[in-house]
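User: Hand in any protein.

Assistant:
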Amino acid sequence: MTESFNNGVVLCECHGHITERLPLDEICQFLEQQRSDVKVALADDLCQSGTLPQFVDGQELRPWVVGACEELKHKRHFWHEAKGLGCDTYSLRIVDLLRETRSSLGATAIAERAKLLLWAQVARRSEFQGVRQDKLRLHLSSPEGKMSRRDLLMLALPRYEVVPFIEPERCRGQQGCRICVDTCPVKALKVEADKVVIDTAICNGCGVCTHTCPQRAIVYPAFSLEELDKELEGLLLPKDVALQSRIIAAVCQRCLAAPGVELPTYPPNVLPVKVPCLALVSPWLILRAFDLGTQGFALVSGRGKCRCGFDSSQWQDKVRFVKGLLECWNIGPERVRVFEVETDTTRSVEGELSQFAEEITRLKPTPLGSDTAPLTPEGWPLPGLIKHMGNRLNNSPGGIVSVGAVPFGKVELDASECSGCGVCALECTTEALTVLSIEATGGYQLLFRHDCCIACGRCVEVCPERCLRFERVLELDRMDGRPTVLFEDAILRCYRCGSPVAPRAMIDKLQAKLSGSESPPSYLRLCPNCRIKSQFGLSSVAPEHAEAK
C-alpha cells in the first residue's frame, strides 16, 4: 500500500440486494461532490475472504467507510485484510445499507437517508486522530445466551478495544481535581501519586468521564467530541438532500446490540448516532445538534439499568436540564425525548419514534440551522456554546434554569464571616473563583465567574469559615464571562518593611481570637521576615510604610 492511494468509500452491491433499491451511482456522485478528495467505488461480495485486497489493488483506494450489510462487521477476515491494507480498523466505519433497503420506506427516502448516513461517517472519520497501541485494552468477550460453536470460538479469540485515556498536560489531578473519579461507575479512574489514571482493565468504555472533565483532558478516540460533532454536521448540514425535519437519535449501541434485542427500524427523518452508552451524550452534544439544525433529539437505550452500570436517571436528568434551557429560548422542550427498548421486541419503540417524528414534523421549524454560524474555539466548552446559541437566537437575557442535572453553579458568600484567606480560590480547578490584588490601591477582591463554575462544591467543602454556599443553577445573563465581586477588603502591610501581610478581615479575626493571650496582637501585622527578626532580637528594619487604610 503506497501513499498514492486515495481515502474513500466502498459500496458493496451484496449480489444485487442493495442495488435493487438504492441508486448507488447517484450516491457516489453525491459523496464525491461533498468532498473532492474522497473517492467512491462499487464492489461486490465483500463478505468473501480475499475480495477486499483484490478490489483495493484495482481501485487504488484505502477504505474509510464501507456501505454493506451488518454481517460484514462480524467477518474476522475482513478486519484482518483491512489492517493489512493500511486501514485503521478502529476508525473504519460500516454503514448497514442492506438494512436500510429492507425498510418499508419509499425509494426516495431510502436513497436520501443512505446519502446522509454515509456522508456523516466520512465527515466523522476526517476528525479521527488515531490511537496509540498502549492505550488499547485487551478484551475477551463473555458468552451470553445460546451460542453456536463458531460463535463461541470467535469469542475466545482476543481482541483490542479503544478506551479513553488522559492527557497529563491538561489534567489538573495534581491540583486536587477529582471530578472524573467520582463519576466513573466502575471505579476505573484512580489517583496514583497525585495523578489521575485510568485502569484500562476495568474501564468499560462508557465515556461519561470525557464530558465531566472541565479541562477536556480525557480523550476517547473514535468517540471524541470533534468526531461526533462532524457526524452531526454530516447528518444535518447538507441542504441538497430531500429529507426535511431531521431528527437526531443518540442510540446506545451496547443496549441495542445485546442478545435478543432486534434493532429498531427508524422513521425516514430519524437519523441514528451510535454511542457506547447514553452517559456519553452530554448537554453540549444535544444543544450542538439543535445549533446545527436538528428539529428533535431522541435518546434510545434499553429499559432498566444499562450494560455500563448506569441507571437511566444519568441521562434523564441531563435531558431535563436541556429542556429547561430550550424553554428559556422559546424552543419547545417537547423536541427532546428518551425512549427505552424492551429486550424482546422493538415494535413499541418503533411506534413511539414514528409518533415522535410526526409530532416534530408538525411543529414550526426552529430558527437555528437555517444559517449556521461557524463555531469558534470559545464555543467548544458548554458555556461558549450556550452564549453562541443565545446570540444567534437574539434572546433577551434573564432566563434561569434550575431543573435536572444543571452543570453550572452559583456561589454566594457571607462577607461578614469571610476572612479573605483565598483557600476556595486555590482549590477551584476551573478558576471560577479567583483572587485579584490591586497593587495601586492595596485592595483585595475575591471574584466569581458563573460561566466557569461546574457546581462541584469543592469550595464549600474547604472553606474554613463555612461562609460559602452554592446552588445548581444556570443564569443566562451571567454567562458573559464578567466576574462578580464576592468579597472585597484592604491588604494590610508590614508596619516595618511595607510587605503585604494579609487581608484586614483575616488580621481582625486573628486579633479577636488572640485578645487576652500572651502573644502581642502587633505581631500579626509583621511579615514573616520581620516577625523572625523581631522574635530573635535581630536588627530591626525601620518602618518605611504606614499601615494601609
Summary: Residues 540-549 have pLDDT under 50 and may be disordered. The chain has four domains: 1-131, 250-267+283-370+378-395, 400-489, 493-535.
